[in-house]
Structures are given as structure tokens and as C-alpha cells.
């Protein structure tokens, strides 16, 4: 039995008229009669009582009508969901991110925009260490990621810069350099102990400009953990300036670095040849977003 049989039966059951039903279905009356008889043979039950003037459902026909309608409704729902999935309107997207992406607000903005446009797509977000993101992306265990650059990109992965700011210095409030009214020269940090975040680009560039090898005392991971250790007096840190307006901890002050700005960027990473329509929709949204500074 196929869908054609179900549609034929339901049409006759609703019209209780074979000629009218055949015309509605676009088949001849004998063809429709043969289809109904075929259904009855498969079910081994009479579905209609027919006279020259009337057609009535049998008790078995009434029960079968309920199930046949439910089957067609489920099929139509499945077809609709399949079509919407093909357009990326339903499904699921796994997003990984480093904590600093959330401080910029780019993660929140992109997720909210996408949810407003595609409310039936589930977005799952998870904070991850930087070193875990690329393998998970290549393995397909996450679909997109927001990271702080630079990161090594394999040929299978593309990136798009979403936000940009500069690095600054975080110091304990009682530190001598915190009292300075001018920007801090890189060489003035040569004798300091450093607490470093996951992304060490800022410190590397400060050390290069100041011509010193940095003394690293701790690498606690997240930016909040870095600033906590600065607040405890364990050292100073080179961190993105976005934190100046987003995290306020007692005993921490921020100062600008003298010289050309050391740029800090957050980028979205995604597979270069992505096939999932849901993920492609999010990628297209991100590519259409101008980098914020």
C-alpha cells in the first residue's frame, strides 16, 4: 500500500461518491474503484457499502479513515520539515567560543540576530580552550567558533574578523606604574612578572618592542582569572582593552601602552566548504557583518 492508495481512500470517504472523487483525483472511475478494491484486499476488510445510489463507510472504513488521515498528516509534516531543513530553517548549530569573544559582545549579537530570523534552529554555545577549538571544528563536533587571533588555520578552515580593539596593561592598584599619567613604554615593563591569558600575542609584541624576555609567573586561562591574579598582586598582564569597560575588579587599574596600537581581534572560524544549510545561513550572516572596533 502506498500514499496513492491512502489519498484515494480518503477522497472517496470524504465525498462518499466515486465519480466525483475520481474527477477530483484526476483518474477514471474504474481506476479509482480498482484502487479501493486493492486496499480492501490488502486489509482483508470491506471499507465501503455501495448501492446504485449511495456509498457509506463500514465500521472498519471509519476506523481506517482516522488512521489514514493521521498517516498523511504525519507525512506532510515530515515533508515540510525536510524542506525547511533543506533551506536551513530548522536544525541545530554547535558554537564554540573563547571567553573574550563574549566580552566583545559579538557572540551575543550574532546569536540573537540568528535566533530572531531562524527561531526554529537550535543554537548550542560552549566556552572552550583555544587549543581544543580547531580539532573540534575539523572533526565536525562544533560548527563555528569565535576565537582571539592569531590562530593557525588549516586549509579546511576559513576565518572572518568580527571585532577589533587594542591591548593595554592591567596592574595592581598599588603598582608604581599605575600612578603614571602618561602611556606606559614597553621597556618600562622589562622587569615585571607577567600573568598571561590564553592568547599571548599582546605580551609577545610588548616584549619585542621593549627588547626583553618576559618573566611569566602564571597562565591561569580565562581573562577573569588573569585579572584576579593581577588583583592579588601576582604580576601584571597585557590584555584586550575591551575589559576596561566590562570587568571591574578591586585593586586592578588599566593603562595604555605607548606607541602604535597593538591590535587585538576576535574572529569567527568555520569550515571552508560547509554543507549544512543551517550553518551556511549563520556563516552568511557573519560575513555580512562589518568588523566592530
UniProtKB/TrEMBL annotation:
- Gene3D superfamilies in the record, alphabetically? Periplasmic binding protein-like II, Winged helix-like DNA-binding domain superfamily/Winged helix DNA-binding domain
Domain named HTH lysR-type is located at 1-58
The protein's matches in InterPro entries, at most eight in alphabetical order, are given as: LysR_HTH_N, LysR_subst-bd, WH-like_DNA-bd_sf, WH_DNA-bd_sf
Key word Repressor present: yes
Q: Which UniProt keywords apply?
A: DNA-binding, Repressor, Transcription, Transcription regulation
Q: Name one GO cellular component term.
A: protein-DNA complex
Q: Which GO terms describe its molecular function?
A: DNA binding; DNA-binding transcription factor activity
Residue spans crossing the bilayer: none
- Keyword Translocase found: no
Checking Pfam families in the record gives: HTH_1, LysR_substrate
Family the entry assigns: Belongs to the LysR transcriptional regulatory family.
Q: What is this protein called?
A: Putative transcriptional regulator
